[in-house]
Structure formats: structure tokens, C-alpha cells
TrEMBL record:
Keywords: Membrane, Transmembrane, Transmembrane helix
Subcellular location: Membrane
Domain TRPM-like: 13-119
The name this protein goes by in its record: TRPM-like domain-containing protein
Length: 229
């Protein structure tokens, strides 16, 4: 019963995906826009369409075709940005996760990967994209507490090589009551495990797993090297 329904939905989504990609490759943007509405991952699909039309524009030999394909690329890029903006207004946390979730229907790629690799100006310019970058930048470190206290605790943790971090640094916790089980969680790895977070060495590893902290260490290292020479 339930397994058959799941398989049916999967096959249906694959069929709609193939029809959508076919309409994009065959340069039928109006049909693609109709099929886009029926896509399970609209943001990802719109970004892929934008990337394809952008590539068509680069390969075109005439000015008219270049402009035509670029306009179509911009249209789908705007669709993706509008979708994520609407999601962000409704729920900021879930919208950020949408950009980082792997999309199995499109080869486990993430919307963020497509936006960066194809230089999607429309999506990169959204508030949601900025917030998502912050999530990745700080990783499992919390950003919801008093900023002054956080900066002080980060400074003290860095100068003690992270030894104080497990006691004074706040960590991000997953809001399990808000989890949408219908969406994939693959690619979302900046939440901490509640049981493991209580362990000193786990919190120590979480602290050093943040790109922001690693960058701070890098700057400190360069500063000390410059002072040495």
C-alpha cells in the first residue's frame, strides 16, 4: 500500500522532471514554466533551467539569440529567487535548509551549489542566501545569543586553543518539533546532536569544525609569523 504509493510518486516526479528538462533543452520556456509548477523541487529546477539557458546564450553566435537566451535565463533565475523569498518570509529556518538540502531528483545537488557555480545573481542577492552562508560559516556554533557576549567567548576560546569553548560557547540545537519529515535532511549538518553535545570533546570538535574559527586561527597564525620575521 504505502510502498506502492511512494514508488508511484517517485516515478511521477521523475516523469515530470524529464518533461521539464526536455522542454528546457528544446527551448520551450513557456511549457517549462507550466511544468515547473508541478516540480517537487521548484527552486532547484528553476536554477537548472536558468543555467542551461545561460549556457545557450554563451554558445549562441548572434546577438539576438544571445539576448533571447539570457532573458530566459534571467526569468528562471528570478523564479528561483521569488520562490525562496516567499519561503523565507514564511519560515526563515526552513528556507535556509531548502538551499542546503540535497535534491535526489537532480543527482543530490543542492540549490546553493547550483547558484554559486552558475553565478545566479538573483538568488545570491536574496536575504535567505546571506543567512544560509552565515549558517555554513558558523556551522554548529549558535548565532542567536547576545553578539557581544558571543564575540568575547569566541575570543577567549581562540586564545586558549578551544579548551574553554565547550564550557562558554553556545551551540546550535535542532528544533525537532519543526522538522518536516517529508523533506530530505541530507546536506543539513549544522545542527548538534543533543546527547553528544553534552560531551566535552564533542563540543571541542564542533568548535574547531566551524570555518569561521578555522579562519580566525589562520589569521592569528599569519600575525604571529609576521611578528616573528
Amino acid at each position: 500500500g504505502q510502498q506502492n504509493n511512494t514508488e508511484y510518486l517517485l516515478e511521477k516526479n521523475k516523469l515530470l522532471r524529464d518533461l521539464f528538462l526536455w522542454s528546457v533543452f528544446m527551448d520551450m520556456p513557456e511549457m517549462a514554466k507550466i511544468l515547473l509548477i508541478h516540480q517537487q523541487s521548484r527552486i532547484c529546477a528553476a536554477l537548472i533551467a536558468s543555467a542551461i539557458f545561460k549556457q545557450y546564450s554563451k554558445l549562441s553566435l548572434t546577438v539576438n539569440l544571445k539576448e533571447k537566451f539570457q532573458n530566459q535565463a534571467d526569468d528562471f533565475g528570478k523564479y528561483a529567487a521569488d520562490f525562496i523569498n516567499d519561503c523565507y518570509k514564511y519560515n526563515e529556518r526552513s528556507a535556509c535548509e531548502l538551499l542546503l538540502r540535497q535534491v535526489p531528483l537532480f543527482g543530490n545537488i543542492t540549490c546553493m551549489q547550483i547558484a554559486i557555480s552558475t553565478q545566479s545573481i538573483q538568488l545570491v542577492g536574496t536575504a535567505c542566501f546571506d543567512q544560509t552562508l552565515n549558517q555554513v560559516w558558523y556551522n554548529k556554533l549558535s548565532m542567536t545569543y547576545n553578539q557581544t557576549l558571543i564575540r568575547l567567548s569566541q575570543f577567549l576560546s581562540i586564545i586558549t586553543f578551544g579548551l574553554l569553548a565547550p564550557w562558554i560557547i553556545p551551540y546550535r540545537e535542532k528544533e525537532t518539533n519543526m522538522q518536516d519529515t517529508s523533506l530530505s535532511t541530507k546536506g543539513i549538518n549544522y545542527y548538534t546532536d543533543e546527547k553528544k553535545t553534552k560531551k566535552y570533546w564533542t563540543r571541542f570538535q564542533y568548535f574547531h569544525g566551524s570555518p569561521f574559527i578555522r579562519m580566525c586561527y589562520h589569521f592569528v597564525n599569519k600575525f604571529l609569523l609576521n611578528q616573528t620575521y
